[in-house]
Amino acid sequence: MVKFRPLKDRYIKSIKSLNAFLELRGSLANCTLVDLDFTANVVDWMQVQIEHTTFLGCAFRSVDEMILREKGAFIYPRHPDLAYNPYRKALYTWQELMEGFSPENDGSLDLAIFQQFSECRYNPSINEALNQRIHDHAIDEALRSLLKYDAEGMTEKRCIGIMGGHGTKRSDDCYRKVAHTALMLTQAGFFVASGGGPGIMEAANLGAWMANYTAADLNVAIAILCRAPHFNDIGYFDAAKAVLAQYPDGRESLAIPTWYYGHEPSNLFATAIAKYFSNSIREDTLLAVSLHGVVFAPGSAGTTQEIFMEATQNHYATFNYYSPMVFLGRNRYETETMIYALVQQLSAGQPYHELLHLADEAEEVLDFLLRHGPMKR
Fold first, then answer.
1. Residue 333 and residue 344: Cα distance in Å, rounded?
2. Which of 57, 202, 324, 342 could form a disulfide with 355 if both were Cys (CB 3.0 to 4.6 A apart)?
């Protein structure tokens, strides 16, 4: 019996990289080539070694495809009727997702993908399900490339997740507090991640974007956004674009949304968007990448679920590290719900017990996270 042996492969995502690799190695053994057009960029495939070589979403001349198949290549074509490309090479940007949008007529890519997903969200065909999974795997790969993991699972970027209610208005004091928290964390060298939607999620990405500016500038930006406080208000996107126009030199941050909640608009302040079809993968991933800590602002059922998902990841050190958990809002987490006391009880005797913190102000959050980093299992 031949046993499967994991092979260290190489992703090739451009013709330039392919040419350089072939000049150096002359072989594509154990390589995966993604979304490349070989109809105009001709390669003499007879001269290239093909072994465990995979082509994802690449376009070929018919004669070249026949040669590659005869040499044993694995070729996965792109389905012509999909609104999305399953074989993505990079994360999304809001500009790509919002292309075609206007307040009068939403012709955006984001909406087109959501509409196609909605037609079969509860019972997709096997082809649709496979394409969705391949797409989400491509997002995984792009996310790993962005965060730069080492062999033990730690990321080069010091990622901190910020969670909270999607319905929080831009005029809410909690929105302002989270935005200032994200600004200070980004200025301190952390990389902010959110769920990518409106409310607290937008506040997190907004604060990160504004980290090249002052706290006073951030207050001006929030005042502009308050022209349309809720994501259902007319002018919601226009207000965000006005902030981007007035403060164009933003800092990077991450958003991890899902088409499962496609009725929630993606915010415009994240510079990288890892958008998934699977909400369960999205939720787990958002917490998993936030190795340097998670800040929980007030929210409802979704935020509560994320608290206990993070507690579970910490309890078992699922991703090789214990991460800080900061609860922003004493009244919410100590009086109204007593969630903080419950997590303290669950963590008793566990390494992450010392990584729990209750705070009311942005300065308290920053101070704690500067003094308490992730602990290796």
1. 11
2. 324
